[in-house]
Amino acid sequence: MSYYQKKLNMKKTFSLLFIILGITTGFSQEDDRPENTGDNFSLEGALALFKKSNSLEEFEKSLNEQNNNVNNLDLNNDGDIDYITVDDIQDGDAHAIVLSTYINETEKQDIALIGVEKIGTDNAVLQIEGDKDLFAENTVIEPTDTVASETKVNNTDTTEYKTNQASVNVWLWPSVRYIYAPSYVIWHSPWRWRLYPKWWRPWRPIGYTVFYRNCAPHRVYYHRVATRRVLVANRVYAPRRHSSTLVIHNRRGTTVIHENRRGNVRAVKVRNGGVRVRGRGRR
Predict the structure, then answer these.
(1) What is the overall mean pLDDT for the chain?
(2) CA separation for the pair 173, 54 (Å, rounded)
(3) Beta pairing partners, 116
């Protein structure tokens, strides 16, 4: 075999390797999705932002800022991050603070509910729960008293976190004091589909692996719990929940749903995933 033939064969081999590498990379990027669609939204991060916000308007703004590493959702699959709206439903000393996004002009999908209930003169409890369409069933997060202590294991410094699972009094949080102030006016987001604040610039979603790593700081003081403590807020919210009937995202594909005049729905297209059909949601 001549020198030039050997060189040509080497070029073909390298070209084939690059093609295989490109295909493999493409599949890995395509499969870099969470177990549940809602995992592209950090419930722990939302509580961290809520804790330091001085109003619900400020809270909504912080949810929609890229550098806060809370939102990585693109539910309508348009290639841009979805804008998150915040609305409060009040019933006495209970507040149901709803985080949602518009799928199109008429469809709205709830993402999570922050329930806050006052249980004494200077005592309030709070939890956030991911919507069942997007998160695993009963995904409930609450603030937790966590103490970090330094220990030595095999002469190596390590950090252990000791967690107290008892409910945390959130009364001194600025956001909680805000919604219980005598002058408080119930907050409803003024923004709608294609009507967004001038400061907001949507960004492209990132891979779930990177997003999960970026959210790590939020998971230190907020943990999943098995007990739902804010019962009144959940009861007030239930009949007002928004659930989109147009497009349902799951781990391995998209199920397109058509709705007839009677409100019945049927799956008409499935790509690489199971079919999930549900009834009509409130608009």
Answers:
(1) 80
(2) 9
(3) 95, 126
